[in-house]
Design brief:
427 residues; 28% helix; four-stranded parallel sheet; seven-stranded mixed sheet; alpha+beta; 11 helices
Length: 427
């Protein structure tokens, strides 16, 4: 039987791993004061802190935007839990819409604008690439970030997570030194709950402390206060879990309500603290020194419809290539595994992101040839990017892709569609 493989490409993204002083983003940040930055930042304690909510430097600027400007743009970065998977009505009963609804109810005379950039199965890496065009471009005043659980699923190391997360935080604050950022830590039925922050949440929380960001450990609170703190075992645990969760990670409406209530407590406490302290003027952030020596600060995001196909064979532009909540608009497709996609770029590395990938990690979905070299098998991620070639000279390169893999490492494809969501290069 003839095997057919359809490949779909939605976006090309280019970024650089650079130090803070070399970033083109930072060159435009002359109004950010880092002259008094400290090497080690002590965590700010407040009277509103709990075991799960840390107010730190608070949300004074958000409070003043609501009080004085009567207008707030709130952006959400996250995976399928931020999208609302598992909820009866994802745009009404999940933590994101509930949080937006809380802001509207508490400030009925204010215009609250929601920016949703959630993408299922995405950790911290992919938002590094779409950040400029889909978050920063919307000029948010408040940004929630929920990515730690998917970093666990994507098996990102703590060092990688720290680089990705600090890159996001620093670029948001560079673009708008008045913006407030709130990390959100959810849970699933696999991550450890022995420590205050599970392995993938810890580097994110370290950055939250360093930058003074308020945070909500909503997953740990739900589990500890509802008898789900011990390791999963027995019918009682299962019954309780199914009350709050539709599966191993996605909450039911009851679980989402618990998440949203904790976030509402954080918001109300931060606003109460701002009022108590007599906040009257928004303050620019003072950027601390970077935790990581190199960050992903110089990023270009190129829609697939703009990619040059002149050297490719059998690839076509197709409409409706959305990536989660992102309205990408177009993607590229082919239906013949012999067709080659040729990508020319200048940089040191190339990343690939797919949304439909078999979980058999021993198999390869594609073949790759770099600068005219031999064809090699290639495994990819879904859809958080995976590096497919690194360590190149920062010069012009040409990469060719074919479907199907090589030899006994080839994936067995039988009339299945596979979706390449992103191509990313490191300059």
């Amino acid at each position: 039987m003839k095997k057919i493989l359809a490949l779909l490409l939605t976006v090309l993204m280019i970024f650089s791993l650079v130090g803070c002083n070399n970033s083109s983003t930072d060159k435009d940040a002359s109004d950010i004061d880092s002259s008094n930055a400290e090497d080690k930042i002590e965590e700010t304690k407040t009277e509103f802190d709990t075991d799960y909510v840390k107010i730190r430097n608070g949300l004074n600027n958000t409070y003043l935007k609501l009080k004085n400007d009567k207008r707030l743009t709130v952006a959400y970065i996250g995976g399928s839990v931020t999208a609302g998977s598992g909820a009866s009505e994802p745009e009404k009963t999940a933590w994101r819409p509930l949080t937006t609804a809380w802001l509207k109810a508490e400030f009925p005379d204010c215009e609250i604008i929601e920016v949703n950039t959630s993408i299922g199965a995405v950790g911290t890496l992919l938002p590094v690439f779409y950040l400029d065009d889909y978050v920063i471009a919307e000029k948010p005043d408040l940004v929630f970030i929920e990515t730690a659980v998917n970093d666990y699923l994507m098996k990102h190391s703590q060092e990688e997570i720290s680089i990705y997360y600090e890159s996001i935080v620093r670029r948001i604050l560079t673009a708008n030194p008045y913006c407030d950022i709130v990390p959100i830590y959810i849970t699933n039925d696999f991550v450890s709950i022995t420590d205050e922050y599970f392995t993938e949440a810890k580097p994110q929380n370290d950055i939250a402390v360093h930058y003074g960001l308020p945070s909500a450990n909503v997953g740990r609170k739900l589990r500890k206060e509802n008898g789900l703190f011990k390791a999963k075992t027995g019918d009682e645990y299962t019954t309780k879990w199914q009350y709050f969760f539709a599966d191993e990670v996605h909450p039911t409406d009851k679980g989402y309500k618990e998440y949203a209530d904790t976030i509402a407590y954080l918001l109300k406490s931060a606003f109460d603290l701002a009022e108590k302290n007599g906040a009257v003027e928004s303050k620019k952030v003072t950027l601390p020194k970077q935790i990581n020596k190199e960050l992903m600060l110089d990023v270009k995001f190129i829609p697939a419809g703009m990619i040059d196909l002149s050297d490719s064979k059998g690839w076509n532009v197709v409409d409706n290539g959305n990536l989660g909540a992102l309205k990408i608009g177009k993607y590229l497709t082919t239906n013949n595994p012999d067709n080659e996609l040729v990508i020319k770029f200048k940089g040191e590395a190339l990343y690939l992101s797919c949304s439909m990938v078999p979980y058999d990690d021993t198999k390869s979905l594609y073949q790759i040839s770099i600068d005219g070299g031999e064809w090699k098998p290639l495994k990819v991620g879904r859809p958080d990017p995976r590096a497919i070639v690194t360590g190149l000279e920062n010069t012009e390169h040409s990469v060719r892709l074919r479907a199907g893999g090589v030899g006994d490492k080839a994936i067995d494809v039988n009339c299945k569609a596979f979706d390449i969501k992103a191509i990313l290069t490191v300059n």
